[in-house]
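Researcher: Good morning. I'm working through a list of sequences from a screen, and I'd like to move beyond sequence-only analysis. For each chain I'm collecting a predicted structure so we can compare shapes side by side. This is the next one on the list. No need for commentary yet; just the structure.
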Amino acid sequence: MRKPAIPDNEADRLADLYDYEILDTGSEPIFDELAQLAATICGTPYALISLVDRDRQWMKAEYGFTLKQTSRAESVCGHAILEHEFFEVPDLKKDGRFADNPVLNGTPLIRFYGGSQLTSINGYNLGMVCVLDAQPRQLSAVQRHALGQLADVIMALLDARRQRRVRDWLGNLVDSSPDEIFIADAQTHRYLHANASAILHLGYSLEQLRKLTPVDVTPNLTREDFEKYVQQLRAGTPQIVYEDTRRRESGEVYPVEIRWQLLVTAGRTVVMALVHDISERKAIERMKDEFISVVNHELRTPLTSIHGAVKLLEAGAAGPLHETAARLVRLASENTSRLRNIIDDILALDKIASGRMEFDIEPLDALAMLEKVARAHAATAITAGVEIAVAAPPGLRVLADAQRLHQILDNLVSNALKFAPPGTQVLFQAQAETGPRVRLSVTDHGSGIPEDFRDRIFQRFAQADMNTSRQKGGSGLGLSIVKKMAEQMNGSVDYESRPGHTTFRVNLPGVPGAAP
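Model: Good morning. Structure tokens for this chain:
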């Protein structure tokens, strides 16, 4: 007896077999009837539909005897799947591969084998549909051809079963999505399908939805609008995304984000809509707007008055102050300044996010801008014992909004002065880059940015856990504002940092030929 060889593609063949999920399934009449039909066509007492597993041959159906599995090493089908043509052995006892095979001496007695490979759509032989006899014999050409046709029918059944399982799985996956998913015909605009979330949210049954179009459940959408979207998608637009409202069967309207996509399947063009309920987001936005209004009108205005009064006291407007009172006034002045900066940061970030911040882009002299910011921070630098140095070529001009660029540099130099050790230098630089671009940089010699903070350094409210950062204060919004403002001016921000050296770089458009 010779054991069947293992195909070179065995791992892929087994993966393909397992993907059908057919092994060890129960008896099914359709497969039992096909096995009986194979025996009837060929005039044999026995027939099998077998699948060859890693170490065994397992029978999905058998006719004439009961045998659910055998060892692969002793199976004839193990040899048969190695071939690509009809496999027939007229007399197993006279074939060296099977002469002393224990299976031949079992019950029932087997002498003849003929079968056709069950070949998957991927080209792997998964098993056999075969007929067996206790007597040596040969099949006719018609019988061989008929077994080949039965093999095709069996594989068609297995493929349909697998496709149905995949469709069911995809259907369950789509139904489990919290978003509404719709499929509409691109010509008639009528809905063809909707997932469970769509049916639940809108309150219509699938049968009712199939009589409707997107126009019927979207109050602000006209048929002309929808047709325009379809034409844009046909013209190559990958997807159309916009915010709108949807109307439930009850008449209730709720805000949504809608994504339209065009799909072509089985020669049919359909429009798929992914609809996301944004009621919660809109509620949060309303709360944020109310908060910003409170910050702007109920906090900023009185705080400005308080700060102005404290600054007057600090300047001696009410006469000389006792040392203790003067110390308290200075403390109040510092903290009201800090609160004003935090409020200004919050308002600035909200303006950027909502698109309400205006930018007046014009050519600016880089050296003059750096010197102006340096002068504004001279007193703070003296108090911190830090020197501010400026280096920029004359005539170098940058395209930016003067007020916003000043705010960007203010944030960067404030951070540098907070962490620069006494006796060190904070360096302002400007240099020309190709493009033309201009690079403005601020360098300090502090302890550097912690590694675990670098991924979120430009996020809102981000602050590093450094020994000095909490003492220095800040809203955690400054670098986020710097990044967003730079981007609004067609620029970018990056940095490099190591212990003893940190440089933040602002890259902005330059004026061609403005500097060497």
